[in-house]
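Deviation from plan, reported transparently: iron/sulfur cluster complex.
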Amino acid sequence: MTVTPPLELAVRDGSPIAVVRELAGTMLRNAYGTSAPPTGARARTDLRAHDAVASTLVQLEALVAAGLEIGRRDVLAALDRAGVRGEPAGAPGRVAVLDLARARTRRFDVVFVLGLEQGSLPRRPRVEPFLDEGTRRALDELRHARLVRPDAASRDRYLFGAVCPRPRQRLVLVRQAVGDEGSPRDASPFWDAVRELFDGDDVRRYTRRQPLSALTWELEAAPTERERLRAVATLAAQAPDEAAALARENGWDRRLERALRAFARPTRITHGRALRLLARDSFSVSELERMASCSAAWFVERYLRPSTIDKQIDRMLRGSILHAALQRFYVKLPSAVPGADRVTEANVEAAVHLMRECVVDAVETGLRIEAGDLDRRELEQGLQRDLEQLVRDEAASASPLVPRHLEVSFRAFELAPGVAVNGKIDRVDGAPMGAHGIVIDYKSGAASSAAEIRDRDLLQLPLYMLVLRRQLGLEPLGGVYVPVGGGRRPRGMLRAGADEVPGFSRRDYLEPAAFDEAVEAARRTAAVLVERIRSGDVRHDPQGGECPHWCDLWRICRKDRP
Ligand code: SF4
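Because the crystal trials were delayed, the predicted structure below was used instead.
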């Protein structure tokens, strides 16, 4: 058999249909030879392409036979439009796109459930134009007409529950966080229900976000003007000049400009009325500390102050009940355990008993919201456990000091000209008749060391020490955070020297000069923070440059998340 080289074939005069047929045959022969039948996935695809070419050519020949003139361009156009059958459904690597009802009876390696947005799943109930639900029900009762439709939400819940266990390896739930225009979309209740089944850290670790820009078409392939505009806006993020030129050419300048303004997320407070709200005389120490940790977080938590509609037992409520229980305990200790001015090994069991009573009282009076019995018991038992541990730790403490002042409030305490703070010190310990004292601050999380107090601009202990000196007339020997729960040790900053208070981590003792400097540094930092608040200087400036993984304020502060 004589084989004509492909290039000669392509340029040969004659019927283009015959040329293409021969060319297609040559390509298939050259790819797989003639000694064995083509097998394998790739060969099957090529054979299907060859079939598609052959059947297109047969149709073109029919047109020629009918008297039409078919040129090279016509053949090329027909081949361009010819479709090639894909792999049959069920072939490896294929994806089955099914609705929930059809997917619920089959098994798959991986299942993606799409559309977990409010209003999509469960679907909104259909509004019937002629007969409302009540009339249908009445007709059903009277005439057994079976007009009432099954509840769509219950059916969708059943279908969703039936599909979730279908995958052998992995279930992926997908929802749109924003619509095509970038406006937020709420999650389906099914989405929230699944998330609640897992640990919050796991949910965060396995949740992947895809920005809207990742779903934009390539400019050349964008099928509509709207998609082309979105493609240009995406291009503007990487190649602004090129995007601007394209927009100019197509008359999209103003629309691109508008889209680009959406990238700017100004955080500074500039409105006069808003700034007037910030021109306060006095600021709480804890809010200055929040400002130091991230000014955007301060803005959301202390200025906007969003809160949930349904009150629940949260960290704040637990903390206030815990403080109330501790306050009662130290007030009652001297009378409940006669002669006791602090907890010791000798009176620890009586002190634990007293603490239990104080927790019961504090929960009774402090829990002012509707809470279920289970939540209430969980709160009470958690506090009992943590505070009993605190009492036992105090009994074993080497510090010789005793509680002397509880819940010391201070207002408009002047740190510098025009800079005043307010707050409340949980407890001040001192020698019964001495002129020295240390500040005690209860913490529900981990306590911070002297180095962390300096590095993270923690203000409470150093500023409270200034209050100790000026308002209570006690010379501060230090301050410690006492963690409640979790078995962690008290940490803080203490003055080293002959009169130092023993019993704390050696690394938290500072030489007198360093100790005084730490207190002064806190005073200076507070003054700078007050000035920043008054001038509305809000930024995305988390300490250390990275947003902590647990900060979920990004939805409000509008910080870009990777
Ligand atoms: S997400 Fe980041 S920038 Fe926003 S408040 Fe939290 S830490 Fe600050």
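Residues 219-264 form one domain. We consider this an acceptable substitute for the interim report.
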